[in-house]
Write a structure and sequence with these properties.
- It is a single chain.
- The protein has 139 residues and is mainly alpha-helical.
- Helix content is 76%, strand content 4%.
- The chain has a two-stranded antiparallel ribbon.
- The relative contact order is 0.07.
- The structure holds zinc ion (ZN).
- Zinc ion is lined by residues 121, 123-124, 126, 135, 137-138.
Length: 139
């Protein structure tokens, strides 16, 4: 009886430990890694702004020194800039892929003879069909 309850306790302990890992894998499976990284960068950026807000408040209340304030603000500003650059790069990568897909679709339609007359988009200068209501590159 003691062996059974010890085994059950061990199994429950292991499940409690690995549950966050399983949960995070499920999250990644349901969402592309690129979108997870995009959310992560946005969250890091937001966290930096919150830490800067707290540092300003602490400084105004006299809870931290000038040196601590300058150090915290400097590090958080740098971290926010890195997160912003990460986010910008991911968005640029997604935009590049969308343009590649649009070019491939247009190429396939040209081969199939289903592509109509083209005009230049006023926003992105990409080629779109004259009859197209929207430019997929500009969405
Ligand atoms: Zn466009």
């Amino acid at each position: 009886m003691i062996v059974m309850s010890s085994a059950a306790l061990a199994i429950i302990s292991v499940l409690l430990i690995i549950w966050p890992i399983i949960k995070s894998k499920i999250y990644i499976v349901n969402k592309s890694v690129m979108l997870v990284e995009l959310d992560d960068a946005a969250n890091r950026e937001t966290q930096c702004y919150e830490e800067i807000r707290v540092a300003i408040s602490d400084y105004q209340l006299g809870n931290i020194t000038n040196v601590q304030y300058i150090d915290i603000i400097g590090k958080r500003r740098t971290a926010a800039a890195v997160a912003l650059m990460d986010r910008s790069k991911i968005i640029a990568d997604i935009s590049y892929m969308v343009n590649q897909i649009e070019d491939q679709v247009s190429s396939n339609r040209r081969i199939n003879g289903t592509l109509g007359d083209l005009k230049e988009c006023e926003n992105c200068n990409g080629l779109i069909e004259v009859s197209a209501p929207i430019c997929f590159r500009c969405l």
